[in-house]
Write a structure and sequence with these properties.
Bound molecules: zinc ion
Distance between the termini: 82 Å
Radius of gyration: 30 Å
Strand content: 5-15%
Length: 609
Protein backbone atom coordinates (compact mmCIF):
# COMPACT_ATOMS: atom_id res chain seq x y z
CA UNK A 1 0.00 0.00 0.00
CA UNK A 2 1.35 3.36 -0.94
CA UNK A 3 -0.20 4.98 2.12
CA UNK A 4 -0.07 8.73 2.01
CA UNK A 5 2.78 8.69 -0.46
CA UNK A 6 2.53 11.05 -3.39
CA UNK A 7 3.26 9.49 -6.72
CA UNK A 8 3.50 10.88 -10.21
CA UNK A 9 2.19 8.76 -12.99
CA UNK A 10 2.51 9.25 -16.72
CA UNK A 11 -0.98 9.11 -18.18
CA UNK A 12 -2.79 10.27 -21.29
CA UNK A 13 -3.84 13.64 -19.88
CA UNK A 14 -0.52 14.53 -18.28
CA UNK A 15 0.51 13.88 -14.73
CA UNK A 16 -1.82 13.19 -11.88
CA UNK A 17 -0.80 13.34 -8.30
CA UNK A 18 -2.53 10.60 -6.40
CA UNK A 19 -2.66 9.10 -2.98
CA UNK A 20 -4.23 5.88 -1.97
CA UNK A 21 -6.55 6.07 1.02
CA UNK A 22 -8.32 3.19 2.65
CA UNK A 23 -11.63 4.02 0.92
CA UNK A 24 -10.11 3.55 -2.53
CA UNK A 25 -8.90 0.00 -3.01
CA UNK A 26 -5.34 0.03 -4.26
CA UNK A 27 -4.20 -2.30 -7.00
CA UNK A 28 -0.78 -2.45 -5.34
CA UNK A 29 2.57 -1.13 -6.34
CA UNK A 30 3.94 -2.24 -9.63
CA UNK A 31 0.49 -2.53 -11.27
CA UNK A 32 0.03 -0.69 -14.57
CA UNK A 33 -3.40 0.49 -13.34
CA UNK A 34 -4.09 3.58 -11.29
CA UNK A 35 -5.81 3.47 -7.97
CA UNK A 36 -9.37 4.65 -7.51
CA UNK A 37 -8.40 8.07 -6.20
CA UNK A 38 -6.26 8.66 -9.24
CA UNK A 39 -9.11 7.59 -11.50
CA UNK A 40 -11.39 10.02 -9.76
CA UNK A 41 -8.88 12.81 -10.40
CA UNK A 42 -8.65 11.72 -13.98
CA UNK A 43 -12.44 11.76 -14.35
CA UNK A 44 -12.49 15.23 -12.88
CA UNK A 45 -10.04 16.44 -15.52
CA UNK A 46 -12.23 15.28 -18.44
CA UNK A 47 -13.40 18.16 -20.57
CA UNK A 48 -15.76 16.42 -22.99
CA UNK A 49 -17.81 13.28 -23.37
CA UNK A 50 -15.18 11.54 -25.54
CA UNK A 51 -12.40 11.82 -22.96
CA UNK A 52 -14.94 10.84 -20.27
CA UNK A 53 -15.84 7.69 -22.19
CA UNK A 54 -12.13 6.84 -22.62
CA UNK A 55 -11.44 7.18 -18.89
CA UNK A 56 -14.64 5.30 -18.10
CA UNK A 57 -13.34 2.41 -20.28
CA UNK A 58 -10.07 2.47 -18.34
CA UNK A 59 -11.99 2.36 -15.05
CA UNK A 60 -13.88 -0.73 -16.24
CA UNK A 61 -10.70 -2.45 -17.48
CA UNK A 62 -9.03 -1.73 -14.16
CA UNK A 63 -11.89 -3.58 -12.46
CA UNK A 64 -13.40 -0.57 -10.70
CA UNK A 65 -16.83 -0.63 -12.28
CA UNK A 66 -18.47 -1.58 -8.99
CA UNK A 67 -16.63 1.07 -7.02
CA UNK A 68 -19.35 3.26 -5.48
CA UNK A 69 -17.22 6.36 -5.26
CA UNK A 70 -16.17 6.26 -8.92
CA UNK A 71 -19.71 5.35 -9.98
CA UNK A 72 -21.03 8.45 -8.22
CA UNK A 73 -18.44 10.64 -10.00
CA UNK A 74 -19.25 9.05 -13.35
CA UNK A 75 -23.01 9.57 -12.92
CA UNK A 76 -22.52 13.27 -12.15
CA UNK A 77 -20.07 13.95 -14.94
CA UNK A 78 -22.15 12.03 -17.50
CA UNK A 79 -25.18 14.08 -16.48
CA UNK A 80 -23.28 17.33 -16.96
CA UNK A 81 -21.81 16.35 -20.32
CA UNK A 82 -24.64 14.46 -21.99
CA UNK A 83 -27.48 16.41 -20.41
CA UNK A 84 -29.22 13.12 -19.71
CA UNK A 85 -29.21 10.48 -17.02
CA UNK A 86 -29.16 7.56 -19.45
CA UNK A 87 -25.42 6.84 -19.23
CA UNK A 88 -25.44 7.57 -15.52
CA UNK A 89 -28.17 5.02 -14.94
CA UNK A 90 -26.11 2.40 -16.83
CA UNK A 91 -23.14 3.13 -14.57
CA UNK A 92 -25.44 2.80 -11.56
CA UNK A 93 -26.86 -0.50 -12.80
CA UNK A 94 -23.36 -1.94 -13.10
CA UNK A 95 -22.55 -1.36 -9.46
CA UNK A 96 -22.93 -4.38 -7.22
CA UNK A 97 -22.81 -2.52 -3.93
CA UNK A 98 -24.88 0.60 -3.28
CA UNK A 99 -25.18 2.94 -0.37
CA UNK A 100 -27.41 5.93 0.40
CA UNK A 101 -24.78 8.29 -0.94
CA UNK A 102 -24.87 6.64 -4.36
CA UNK A 103 -28.67 6.75 -4.42
CA UNK A 104 -28.53 10.43 -3.49
CA UNK A 105 -26.37 11.12 -6.53
CA UNK A 106 -28.93 9.35 -8.67
CA UNK A 107 -31.90 11.18 -7.12
CA UNK A 108 -30.14 14.55 -7.38
CA UNK A 109 -29.22 13.81 -11.01
CA UNK A 110 -32.80 12.98 -11.96
CA UNK A 111 -34.23 16.00 -10.16
CA UNK A 112 -31.78 18.54 -11.56
CA UNK A 113 -32.40 17.07 -14.97
CA UNK A 114 -36.15 17.35 -14.64
CA UNK A 115 -36.82 13.58 -14.58
CA UNK A 116 -38.98 13.87 -11.46
CA UNK A 117 -40.78 10.56 -11.75
CA UNK A 118 -37.45 8.73 -11.91
CA UNK A 119 -36.15 10.68 -8.94
CA UNK A 120 -39.13 9.52 -6.87
CA UNK A 121 -38.70 5.95 -8.13
CA UNK A 122 -35.00 5.97 -7.19
CA UNK A 123 -35.98 7.20 -3.72
CA UNK A 124 -38.47 4.34 -3.31
CA UNK A 125 -35.92 1.86 -4.64
CA UNK A 126 -33.38 3.08 -2.11
CA UNK A 127 -35.77 2.38 0.73
CA UNK A 128 -36.69 -1.01 -0.65
CA UNK A 129 -33.00 -1.86 -0.53
CA UNK A 130 -33.14 -1.15 3.19
CA UNK A 131 -31.06 2.04 2.84
CA UNK A 132 -31.91 5.09 4.91
CA UNK A 133 -32.54 8.40 3.17
CA UNK A 134 -30.75 11.36 4.75
CA UNK A 135 -30.64 15.16 4.58
CA UNK A 136 -29.05 14.95 1.13
CA UNK A 137 -31.90 12.77 -0.18
CA UNK A 138 -34.91 14.70 1.14
CA UNK A 139 -34.45 18.12 -0.46
CA UNK A 140 -34.11 16.65 -3.95
CA UNK A 141 -36.92 14.15 -3.75
CA UNK A 142 -39.12 16.89 -2.26
CA UNK A 143 -38.24 19.11 -5.18
CA UNK A 144 -39.38 16.32 -7.50
CA UNK A 145 -42.69 16.09 -5.60
CA UNK A 146 -43.18 19.88 -5.87
CA UNK A 147 -42.54 19.83 -9.57
CA UNK A 148 -45.05 17.02 -10.02
CA UNK A 149 -47.53 18.62 -7.61
CA UNK A 150 -47.63 15.28 -5.77
CA UNK A 151 -48.80 16.30 -2.30
CA UNK A 152 -49.47 12.75 -1.08
CA UNK A 153 -45.95 11.59 -1.88
CA UNK A 154 -44.61 14.82 -0.39
CA UNK A 155 -46.43 14.10 2.88
CA UNK A 156 -45.04 10.58 2.89
CA UNK A 157 -41.54 11.99 2.52
CA UNK A 158 -42.27 14.44 5.31
CA UNK A 159 -43.08 11.43 7.56
CA UNK A 160 -39.92 9.65 6.40
CA UNK A 161 -37.85 12.71 7.26
CA UNK A 162 -39.33 12.80 10.76
CA UNK A 163 -38.57 9.10 11.20
CA UNK A 164 -35.02 9.88 10.13
CA UNK A 165 -34.84 12.49 12.89
CA UNK A 166 -34.71 15.43 10.51
CA UNK A 167 -37.38 17.60 12.18
CA UNK A 168 -36.09 21.09 12.12
CA UNK A 169 -33.20 20.40 9.76
CA UNK A 170 -32.93 23.62 7.79
CA UNK A 171 -32.39 22.14 4.29
CA UNK A 172 -35.07 19.54 4.76
CA UNK A 173 -37.57 22.07 6.14
CA UNK A 174 -36.86 24.44 3.28
CA UNK A 175 -37.63 21.60 0.89
CA UNK A 176 -40.85 20.85 2.76
CA UNK A 177 -41.99 24.49 2.74
CA UNK A 178 -41.39 24.74 -0.99
CA UNK A 179 -43.14 21.42 -1.62
CA UNK A 180 -46.23 22.24 0.46
CA UNK A 181 -46.47 25.74 -0.99
CA UNK A 182 -46.13 24.48 -4.53
CA UNK A 183 -48.89 21.92 -3.90
CA UNK A 184 -51.10 24.70 -2.50
CA UNK A 185 -51.01 23.42 1.11
CA UNK A 186 -50.08 26.66 2.85
CA UNK A 187 -51.19 25.50 6.29
CA UNK A 188 -48.61 22.74 6.40
CA UNK A 189 -45.98 24.96 4.77
CA UNK A 190 -46.51 27.56 7.47
CA UNK A 191 -46.45 24.97 10.22
CA UNK A 192 -43.07 23.67 9.07
CA UNK A 193 -41.84 27.27 8.82
CA UNK A 194 -43.10 28.21 12.29
CA UNK A 195 -41.62 25.14 13.93
CA UNK A 196 -38.13 25.58 12.47
CA UNK A 197 -35.59 26.19 15.23
CA UNK A 198 -33.43 28.16 12.84
CA UNK A 199 -34.42 29.73 9.55
CA UNK A 200 -32.15 30.88 6.78
CA UNK A 201 -32.92 33.34 3.99
CA UNK A 202 -34.17 30.48 1.80
CA UNK A 203 -36.79 29.53 4.41
CA UNK A 204 -38.17 33.08 4.42
CA UNK A 205 -38.01 33.39 0.65
CA UNK A 206 -39.79 30.07 0.10
CA UNK A 207 -42.61 30.95 2.47
CA UNK A 208 -43.07 34.44 0.98
CA UNK A 209 -43.01 33.02 -2.55
CA UNK A 210 -45.49 30.36 -1.44
CA UNK A 211 -48.03 32.95 -0.32
CA UNK A 212 -47.47 34.93 -3.46
CA UNK A 213 -47.88 31.96 -5.83
CA UNK A 214 -51.06 30.91 -4.08
CA UNK A 215 -52.66 34.31 -4.36
CA UNK A 216 -52.26 35.39 -0.74
CA UNK A 217 -50.55 38.74 -1.26
CA UNK A 218 -51.52 40.14 2.15
CA UNK A 219 -49.99 37.21 4.00
CA UNK A 220 -46.89 37.52 1.80
CA UNK A 221 -46.56 41.18 2.75
CA UNK A 222 -47.10 40.47 6.46
CA UNK A 223 -44.40 37.82 6.42
CA UNK A 224 -42.11 40.18 4.53
CA UNK A 225 -42.59 42.74 7.29
CA UNK A 226 -41.89 39.99 9.82
CA UNK A 227 -38.69 39.17 8.00
CA UNK A 228 -37.54 42.80 8.02
CA UNK A 229 -38.11 42.99 11.74
CA UNK A 230 -37.06 39.55 12.87
CA UNK A 231 -34.43 38.15 10.53
CA UNK A 232 -31.09 39.63 11.31
CA UNK A 233 -29.20 38.29 8.30
CA UNK A 234 -31.43 40.40 6.07
CA UNK A 235 -33.02 39.82 2.72
CA UNK A 236 -31.49 39.20 -0.67
CA UNK A 237 -32.39 39.71 -4.31
CA UNK A 238 -34.45 36.50 -4.29
CA UNK A 239 -36.61 37.90 -1.47
CA UNK A 240 -37.37 40.95 -3.58
CA UNK A 241 -38.20 38.80 -6.61
CA UNK A 242 -40.51 36.75 -4.33
CA UNK A 243 -42.35 39.72 -2.80
CA UNK A 244 -42.66 42.01 -5.83
CA UNK A 245 -45.58 40.15 -7.47
CA UNK A 246 -47.58 40.43 -4.22
CA UNK A 247 -46.85 44.15 -4.07
CA UNK A 248 -48.17 44.52 -7.62
CA UNK A 249 -51.23 42.51 -6.73
CA UNK A 250 -51.96 44.88 -3.84
CA UNK A 251 -50.96 47.93 -5.88
CA UNK A 252 -48.55 48.63 -3.04
CA UNK A 253 -46.50 51.02 -5.11
CA UNK A 254 -44.86 52.63 -2.06
CA UNK A 255 -43.58 49.25 -0.90
CA UNK A 256 -42.49 48.43 -4.43
CA UNK A 257 -40.51 51.66 -4.67
CA UNK A 258 -38.97 50.91 -1.30
CA UNK A 259 -37.91 47.45 -2.51
CA UNK A 260 -36.33 49.03 -5.58
CA UNK A 261 -34.40 51.57 -3.48
CA UNK A 262 -33.34 48.81 -1.09
CA UNK A 263 -31.86 46.86 -4.00
CA UNK A 264 -29.94 49.91 -5.21
CA UNK A 265 -28.72 51.00 -1.76
CA UNK A 266 -27.55 47.54 -0.85
CA UNK A 267 -25.75 47.04 -4.12
CA UNK A 268 -27.92 44.12 -5.28
CA UNK A 269 -27.18 43.19 -8.85
CA UNK A 270 -30.31 44.09 -10.79
CA UNK A 271 -30.01 41.07 -13.06
CA UNK A 272 -32.52 40.00 -15.65
CA UNK A 273 -34.75 38.27 -13.06
CA UNK A 274 -34.89 41.12 -10.53
CA UNK A 275 -35.08 43.70 -13.32
CA UNK A 276 -38.02 41.92 -14.90
CA UNK A 277 -39.77 41.61 -11.52
CA UNK A 278 -39.37 45.38 -11.05
CA UNK A 279 -40.66 46.17 -14.55
CA UNK A 280 -43.61 43.92 -13.83
CA UNK A 281 -44.34 45.56 -10.49
CA UNK A 282 -44.22 49.12 -11.86
CA UNK A 283 -46.29 48.12 -14.88
CA UNK A 284 -48.92 46.34 -12.77
CA UNK A 285 -49.10 49.37 -10.46
CA UNK A 286 -49.83 51.46 -13.51
CA UNK A 287 -46.51 53.35 -13.51
CA UNK A 288 -45.61 52.59 -17.08
CA UNK A 289 -43.06 55.38 -17.44
CA UNK A 290 -41.03 54.06 -14.50
CA UNK A 291 -41.41 50.50 -15.76
CA UNK A 292 -39.98 51.73 -19.04
CA UNK A 293 -37.07 53.46 -17.31
CA UNK A 294 -36.11 50.32 -15.39
CA UNK A 295 -36.48 48.28 -18.55
CA UNK A 296 -34.26 50.64 -20.55
CA UNK A 297 -31.54 50.44 -17.89
CA UNK A 298 -31.44 46.67 -17.76
CA UNK A 299 -28.13 45.32 -19.06
CA UNK A 300 -29.78 42.16 -20.22
CA UNK A 301 -33.37 41.43 -21.16
CA UNK A 302 -35.12 38.21 -22.00
CA UNK A 303 -38.51 37.39 -23.42
CA UNK A 304 -40.07 37.71 -19.93
CA UNK A 305 -38.75 41.27 -19.58
CA UNK A 306 -40.27 42.25 -22.92
CA UNK A 307 -43.52 40.48 -22.09
CA UNK A 308 -43.75 42.36 -18.77
CA UNK A 309 -43.59 45.71 -20.54
CA UNK A 310 -45.84 44.79 -23.46
CA UNK A 311 -48.41 43.26 -21.10
CA UNK A 312 -48.23 46.34 -18.88
CA UNK A 313 -48.97 48.72 -21.75
CA UNK A 314 -51.74 46.42 -22.95
CA UNK A 315 -53.79 46.26 -19.73
CA UNK A 316 -53.41 50.02 -19.34
CA UNK A 317 -55.04 50.41 -22.73
CA UNK A 318 -51.87 51.90 -24.25
CA UNK A 319 -52.09 49.70 -27.31
CA UNK A 320 -49.79 51.78 -29.51
CA UNK A 321 -47.03 51.61 -26.87
CA UNK A 322 -47.60 47.87 -26.55
CA UNK A 323 -47.33 47.39 -30.29
CA UNK A 324 -44.35 49.78 -30.52
CA UNK A 325 -42.51 47.82 -27.83
CA UNK A 326 -43.39 44.59 -29.58
CA UNK A 327 -41.83 45.81 -32.82
CA UNK A 328 -38.68 46.86 -30.89
CA UNK A 329 -38.59 43.36 -29.48
CA UNK A 330 -38.67 41.87 -32.95
CA UNK A 331 -35.94 44.29 -34.07
CA UNK A 332 -33.81 43.21 -31.09
CA UNK A 333 -34.13 39.65 -32.41
CA UNK A 334 -35.87 38.35 -29.33
CA UNK A 335 -38.25 35.60 -30.37
CA UNK A 336 -41.74 36.24 -29.04
CA UNK A 337 -43.44 33.36 -27.25
CA UNK A 338 -47.08 32.40 -26.86
CA UNK A 339 -47.51 34.84 -23.95
CA UNK A 340 -46.16 37.74 -26.02
CA UNK A 341 -48.93 37.12 -28.54
CA UNK A 342 -51.59 36.89 -25.83
CA UNK A 343 -50.48 40.36 -24.69
CA UNK A 344 -50.27 41.77 -28.22
CA UNK A 345 -53.68 40.41 -29.21
CA UNK A 346 -55.36 41.50 -26.00
CA UNK A 347 -53.82 44.98 -26.33
CA UNK A 348 -55.37 45.14 -29.80
CA UNK A 349 -58.69 43.89 -28.41
CA UNK A 350 -58.76 46.40 -25.55
CA UNK A 351 -58.03 49.26 -27.91
CA UNK A 352 -60.42 48.09 -30.63
CA UNK A 353 -57.58 47.59 -33.16
CA UNK A 354 -59.21 44.83 -35.18
CA UNK A 355 -56.89 45.03 -38.21
CA UNK A 356 -53.77 44.74 -36.06
CA UNK A 357 -55.27 41.83 -34.20
CA UNK A 358 -56.00 40.01 -37.47
CA UNK A 359 -52.48 40.73 -38.77
CA UNK A 360 -50.65 39.47 -35.66
CA UNK A 361 -52.90 36.46 -35.28
CA UNK A 362 -51.85 35.41 -38.79
CA UNK A 363 -48.17 36.31 -38.26
CA UNK A 364 -48.03 34.28 -35.11
CA UNK A 365 -48.44 31.06 -37.06
CA UNK A 366 -46.92 32.09 -40.41
CA UNK A 367 -43.81 33.96 -39.23
CA UNK A 368 -43.19 32.64 -35.74
CA UNK A 369 -44.35 29.02 -35.99
CA UNK A 370 -46.55 29.33 -32.92
CA UNK A 371 -49.87 27.49 -32.98
CA UNK A 372 -52.61 29.64 -31.43
CA UNK A 373 -53.98 28.28 -28.16
CA UNK A 374 -57.43 28.80 -26.69
CA UNK A 375 -56.22 32.02 -25.10
CA UNK A 376 -55.21 33.46 -28.47
CA UNK A 377 -58.54 32.51 -29.99
CA UNK A 378 -60.28 34.08 -27.00
CA UNK A 379 -58.40 37.35 -27.64
CA UNK A 380 -59.39 37.29 -31.32
CA UNK A 381 -63.04 36.66 -30.48
CA UNK A 382 -62.79 39.47 -27.94
CA UNK A 383 -61.32 41.89 -30.51
CA UNK A 384 -63.91 41.00 -33.15
CA UNK A 385 -66.83 40.79 -30.72
CA UNK A 386 -66.12 44.16 -29.12
CA UNK A 387 -66.13 45.68 -32.60
CA UNK A 388 -69.52 44.04 -33.18
CA UNK A 389 -68.14 41.72 -35.88
CA UNK A 390 -70.08 38.72 -34.63
CA UNK A 391 -70.11 36.80 -37.95
CA UNK A 392 -66.33 36.89 -38.17
CA UNK A 393 -66.03 35.98 -34.48
CA UNK A 394 -68.27 32.95 -35.01
CA UNK A 395 -66.33 31.87 -38.10
CA UNK A 396 -63.07 32.06 -36.10
CA UNK A 397 -64.70 29.88 -33.42
CA UNK A 398 -65.90 27.40 -36.02
CA UNK A 399 -62.43 27.27 -37.59
CA UNK A 400 -60.72 26.23 -34.37
CA UNK A 401 -58.85 22.92 -34.68
CA UNK A 402 -59.91 21.97 -31.15
CA UNK A 403 -63.05 22.40 -29.06
CA UNK A 404 -63.39 26.03 -27.97
CA UNK A 405 -63.12 26.35 -24.20
CA UNK A 406 -64.87 28.55 -21.67
CA UNK A 407 -62.42 31.41 -22.30
CA UNK A 408 -63.44 31.66 -25.98
CA UNK A 409 -67.18 31.52 -25.23
CA UNK A 410 -66.58 33.90 -22.33
CA UNK A 411 -65.09 36.48 -24.73
CA UNK A 412 -68.10 36.16 -26.97
CA UNK A 413 -70.39 36.52 -23.98
CA UNK A 414 -68.58 39.68 -22.89
CA UNK A 415 -69.05 41.16 -26.35
CA UNK A 416 -72.73 40.23 -26.27
CA UNK A 417 -73.06 42.22 -23.04
CA UNK A 418 -71.52 45.31 -24.62
CA UNK A 419 -73.68 45.04 -27.74
CA UNK A 420 -76.75 43.78 -25.84
CA UNK A 421 -77.10 40.77 -28.18
CA UNK A 422 -79.23 38.48 -26.03
CA UNK A 423 -79.87 35.71 -28.57
CA UNK A 424 -76.17 35.08 -29.27
CA UNK A 425 -75.49 35.51 -25.56
CA UNK A 426 -77.82 32.58 -24.84
CA UNK A 427 -75.74 30.27 -27.06
CA UNK A 428 -72.47 31.46 -25.50
CA UNK A 429 -73.90 31.35 -21.97
CA UNK A 430 -75.01 27.74 -22.31
CA UNK A 431 -71.52 26.67 -23.35
CA UNK A 432 -69.71 28.79 -20.78
CA UNK A 433 -71.81 27.53 -17.87
CA UNK A 434 -71.32 23.95 -19.03
CA UNK A 435 -67.55 24.23 -19.53
CA UNK A 436 -66.77 26.35 -16.48
CA UNK A 437 -69.51 25.35 -14.03
CA UNK A 438 -67.82 26.55 -10.85
CA UNK A 439 -66.77 30.04 -11.92
CA UNK A 440 -69.17 32.46 -10.28
CA UNK A 441 -68.02 35.37 -12.47
CA UNK A 442 -69.52 33.62 -15.52
CA UNK A 443 -72.95 33.30 -13.87
CA UNK A 444 -72.84 36.93 -12.82
CA UNK A 445 -72.05 38.02 -16.37
CA UNK A 446 -74.86 35.89 -17.82
CA UNK A 447 -77.32 37.13 -15.18
CA UNK A 448 -76.29 40.72 -15.85
CA UNK A 449 -76.95 40.34 -19.56
CA UNK A 450 -80.46 39.03 -18.84
CA UNK A 451 -81.04 41.65 -16.18
CA UNK A 452 -80.05 44.43 -18.57
CA UNK A 453 -82.82 43.24 -20.89
CA UNK A 454 -85.29 42.90 -18.04
CA UNK A 455 -85.45 39.08 -18.45
CA UNK A 456 -85.97 38.43 -14.75
CA UNK A 457 -87.14 34.82 -15.18
CA UNK A 458 -83.83 34.03 -16.81
CA UNK A 459 -81.95 35.85 -14.06
CA UNK A 460 -83.78 33.68 -11.54
CA UNK A 461 -82.96 30.52 -13.54
CA UNK A 462 -79.24 31.42 -13.51
CA UNK A 463 -79.39 32.01 -9.78
CA UNK A 464 -81.07 28.64 -9.18
CA UNK A 465 -78.41 26.95 -11.32
CA UNK A 466 -75.74 28.59 -9.22
CA UNK A 467 -77.37 27.32 -6.03
CA UNK A 468 -77.81 23.81 -7.40
CA UNK A 469 -74.18 23.65 -8.37
CA UNK A 470 -73.03 25.12 -5.09
CA UNK A 471 -71.33 28.11 -6.74
CA UNK A 472 -70.67 31.05 -4.47
CA UNK A 473 -70.15 34.57 -5.71
CA UNK A 474 -66.59 35.46 -4.74
CA UNK A 475 -66.35 38.38 -2.39
CA UNK A 476 -65.25 41.59 -3.99
CA UNK A 477 -62.30 43.25 -2.35
CA UNK A 478 -60.32 46.38 -3.10
CA UNK A 479 -56.99 47.58 -1.81
CA UNK A 480 -55.41 50.98 -1.59
CA UNK A 481 -52.00 51.94 -0.27
CA UNK A 482 -51.86 55.12 1.78
CA UNK A 483 -48.64 56.19 3.47
CA UNK A 484 -46.99 52.78 3.12
CA UNK A 485 -49.90 50.87 4.51
CA UNK A 486 -52.17 48.70 2.42
CA UNK A 487 -55.85 48.95 3.37
CA UNK A 488 -58.23 46.31 2.05
CA UNK A 489 -62.01 46.65 1.94
CA UNK A 490 -64.79 44.18 1.22
CA UNK A 491 -68.24 45.18 -0.05
CA UNK A 492 -70.30 46.82 2.71
CA UNK A 493 -67.27 46.45 4.94
CA UNK A 494 -67.53 48.23 8.27
CA UNK A 495 -64.47 46.77 9.90
CA UNK A 496 -62.05 49.58 9.11
CA UNK A 497 -61.24 51.77 12.13
CA UNK A 498 -62.17 54.89 10.11
CA UNK A 499 -65.34 53.29 8.79
CA UNK A 500 -67.59 56.11 10.02
CA UNK A 501 -65.68 58.77 8.12
CA UNK A 502 -65.62 56.61 5.00
CA UNK A 503 -69.41 56.15 5.03
CA UNK A 504 -69.92 59.85 5.72
CA UNK A 505 -67.80 60.62 2.68
CA UNK A 506 -69.76 58.13 0.55
CA UNK A 507 -73.07 59.68 1.56
CA UNK A 508 -71.75 63.14 0.78
CA UNK A 509 -70.45 61.98 -2.60
CA UNK A 510 -73.75 60.33 -3.49
CA UNK A 511 -75.65 63.51 -2.66
CA UNK A 512 -73.33 65.58 -4.84
CA UNK A 513 -73.50 63.08 -7.70
CA UNK A 514 -77.31 62.95 -7.58
CA UNK A 515 -77.17 66.70 -7.89
CA UNK A 516 -75.14 66.15 -11.08
CA UNK A 517 -77.92 63.91 -12.41
CA UNK A 518 -76.69 60.50 -11.27
CA UNK A 519 -79.17 57.62 -11.08
CA UNK A 520 -77.82 54.28 -9.83
CA UNK A 521 -77.62 51.57 -12.48
CA UNK A 522 -78.60 48.53 -10.47
CA UNK A 523 -78.44 45.88 -13.19
CA UNK A 524 -75.20 44.58 -11.80
CA UNK A 525 -76.91 43.23 -8.74
CA UNK A 526 -77.71 39.57 -8.74
CA UNK A 527 -80.38 39.63 -6.07
CA UNK A 528 -84.14 39.88 -5.85
CA UNK A 529 -84.38 43.12 -3.96
CA UNK A 530 -86.20 46.39 -4.39
CA UNK A 531 -84.65 49.22 -6.41
CA UNK A 532 -83.82 51.22 -3.30
CA UNK A 533 -81.98 48.38 -1.63
CA UNK A 534 -80.15 47.48 -4.85
CA UNK A 535 -78.90 51.02 -5.14
CA UNK A 536 -77.72 50.73 -1.58
CA UNK A 537 -75.80 47.55 -2.39
CA UNK A 538 -73.88 48.86 -5.38
CA UNK A 539 -73.16 52.07 -3.51
CA UNK A 540 -71.20 50.01 -0.98
CA UNK A 541 -69.05 48.04 -3.44
CA UNK A 542 -65.51 47.60 -2.17
CA UNK A 543 -63.82 49.96 -4.65
CA UNK A 544 -66.06 52.82 -3.52
CA UNK A 545 -64.99 52.34 0.08
CA UNK A 546 -61.35 52.31 -1.02
CA UNK A 547 -61.79 55.42 -3.17
CA UNK A 548 -63.59 57.29 -0.36
CA UNK A 549 -60.81 56.31 2.03
CA UNK A 550 -58.21 57.54 -0.47
CA UNK A 551 -60.03 60.84 -0.95
CA UNK A 552 -59.89 61.47 2.78
CA UNK A 553 -56.43 60.21 3.69
CA UNK A 554 -54.15 60.16 0.64
CA UNK A 555 -51.95 63.21 0.20
CA UNK A 556 -53.94 66.08 -1.34
CA UNK A 557 -54.05 66.09 -5.11
CA UNK A 558 -52.29 62.73 -5.47
CA UNK A 559 -53.63 60.10 -7.81
CA UNK A 560 -55.88 57.61 -6.04
CA UNK A 561 -54.83 54.04 -6.96
CA UNK A 562 -57.13 51.15 -6.18
CA UNK A 563 -56.92 47.49 -7.09
CA UNK A 564 -59.99 45.29 -7.23
CA UNK A 565 -60.07 41.49 -7.46
CA UNK A 566 -63.21 41.37 -9.65
CA UNK A 567 -64.43 43.38 -12.59
CA UNK A 568 -65.70 46.87 -11.90
CA UNK A 569 -69.48 47.00 -12.30
CA UNK A 570 -71.21 49.45 -14.62
CA UNK A 571 -72.54 51.59 -11.79
CA UNK A 572 -69.21 51.92 -9.98
CA UNK A 573 -67.60 52.76 -13.31
CA UNK A 574 -69.97 55.68 -13.97
CA UNK A 575 -69.75 56.84 -10.38
CA UNK A 576 -65.95 56.86 -10.43
CA UNK A 577 -65.98 58.86 -13.65
CA UNK A 578 -68.20 61.44 -12.01
CA UNK A 579 -66.14 61.51 -8.81
CA UNK A 580 -62.97 62.20 -10.81
CA UNK A 581 -64.72 65.24 -12.24
CA UNK A 582 -66.37 66.34 -9.01
CA UNK A 583 -63.22 66.34 -6.90
CA UNK A 584 -60.73 67.05 -9.70
CA UNK A 585 -58.58 64.03 -8.89
CA UNK A 586 -57.18 61.29 -11.08
CA UNK A 587 -58.35 57.85 -9.99
CA UNK A 588 -56.76 54.67 -11.30
CA UNK A 589 -58.63 51.42 -10.70
CA UNK A 590 -57.09 48.13 -11.74
CA UNK A 591 -59.77 45.48 -11.90
CA UNK A 592 -59.33 41.80 -12.73
CA UNK A 593 -59.31 42.64 -16.40
CA UNK A 594 -57.57 45.97 -17.03
CA UNK A 595 -56.73 49.45 -15.83
CA UNK A 596 -59.29 52.22 -15.71
CA UNK A 597 -57.75 55.67 -15.55
CA UNK A 598 -60.48 58.11 -14.56
CA UNK A 599 -59.84 61.76 -15.22
CA UNK A 600 -62.14 64.75 -15.66
CA UNK A 601 -65.27 62.59 -15.91
CA UNK A 602 -63.96 60.10 -18.49
CA UNK A 603 -62.21 56.74 -18.36
CA UNK A 604 -59.25 55.56 -20.41
CA UNK A 605 -61.13 52.38 -21.33
CA UNK A 606 -63.67 54.45 -23.26
CA UNK A 607 -66.42 52.52 -21.40
CA UNK A 608 -65.31 49.43 -23.25
CA UNK A 609 -64.25 46.71 -20.82
ZN1 LIG B 1 -69.66 48.16 -8.33
ZN1 LIG C 1 -62.95 52.27 -17.52
Amino acid sequence: MAFGVSIRLPIKHGFVRGRAFGYFPDRGNGSSFLDSYEYSQLLQSCRDIESLKAVHAQVVTAGYQSNMYLAAKLIEIYRDFSGSMEDGRKVFNNTTERDSQLYNVLIRGYTTHGSYMEAIRAYDEMQMQGLKPNHFSFPFVLKACSAMGDLEKGKEIHRDSMMAGMNGHTYVCNGLIAMYARCGDLTNARQVFDEMPERDVISWNSMIAGYCQNDHPKEALELFHGMLLGFREGLDGVTLVAILPSLSQLSALGHGRWAHCYAIKNGFVVDVVLGTALVNMYAKCGRLSVARLVFDRMAQRNVFSWNALIGGYGVYGLASDALGTFSLMLKANISPDAITFVYVLSACAHAGLVDDARQWFRAMRDDHSLEPSGEHYACMVDALGRAGLFDEAMSIINSMPFEPGADVWGSLLGACRIHKDVSLAEIAAERVLMLDPLNAGRYVLVANIYAASGMWDEVARVRTLMKERGVRKPLGSSSIEVRHRVHTFGARDESHPFSNKIYEKLTWLEGELRGMGYEPDVNSVLHDVGEEEKGEMVARHSERLAIAFGLIYASPGSTIRVTKNLRVCVDCHSVTKMISKLVGREIVVRDSNRFHHFKGGACSCGDYW
